[in-house]
Design brief:
The protein has helices spanning about 1-15, 20-30, 60-65, 95-105, 150-155, 185-190; strands at about 55-60, 70, 75-80, 85, 115-120, 125-130, 135-140, 165-170, 180-185, 205. With about 210 residues, it is an alpha+beta fold.
């Protein structure tokens, strides 16, 4: 008993003498928690464009399906069996698919199963000029939309002289009239604004330089 007690006291004294070192060792060997993954930026859905080639299929409806692929007109319409002309302006592929399903379901078919596939995308570009790393043409990513900040990022991002508070976006409206808006992109980069500014083909973005 006496020897066991002496050994316990000796061990306790030894551990006490290493107190600071033991704590430091524990702190350096404890694995740190990994950083939480950053949320991916929300992608903008692709909006159908004139000259896109699409395929509309209705399950088990051969008379409808035999029409084959159709190209969207410059007025954003397609002509489909039974339901005639369908206006797809401003609609994504999923929204167009749901619209066509509703039109067939309304008067012609019972609970139709419709699928819409984009067979050929019309080339889509925007133009980014001014105080960015690589000014010029920026193509839209396939099957996706493009936002103002996305386009600037693909053009090499803002350079050190960029005036982020006065970025201009020029666009030709459906009636052929030009429209220009000034955007505070600094608020977008800081998350102070929820506006994403989705782009349309042939939009022109200009990033001015700060005036010293």
């Amino acid at each position: 008993m006496i020897f066991r007690l002496l050994r316990q006291l000796a061990c306790a004294a030894f551990v006490a003498s290493l107190g600071p070192l033991a704590v430091a060792t524990a702190q350096t060997t404890t694995p740190s928690k990994p950083d939480a993954p950053k949320a991916e930026a929300a992608k903008v859905d692709y909006v159908l464009q004139p000259s896109d080639l699409i395929r509309v299929q209705v399950f088990q409806e051969d008379d409808i399906n035999k029409q084959g692929d159709v190209r969207i007109s410059q007025e954003y319409t397609v002509s489909l069996p039974l339901i005639g002309s369908v206006d797809l302006k401003g609609k994504t592929a999923h929204q167009a698919e749901e619209l066509i399903r509703e039109l067939y379901d309304r008067d012609y078919l019972v609970n139709p199963q419709v699928s819409l596939i984009v067979i050929e995308y019309v080339p889509r570009n925007v133009f980014v000029f001014g105080a960015v790393g690589a000014p010029g043409v920026v193509p839209f990513p396939r099957e996706q939309g493009l936002t103002l900040l996305d386009a600037i990022s693909r053009a090499g991002s803002f350079n050190r002289l960029a005036d982020k508070k006065h970025v201009t976006l020029k666009r030709t409206n459906a009636d052929g009239k030009p429209d220009t808006v000034t955007i505070n992109a600094e608020n977008l980069t800081k998350g102070a604004s929820t506006e994403t500014w989705p782009l349309q083909p042939n939009d022109v973005i200009f990033v001015p330089e700060n005036i010293l």
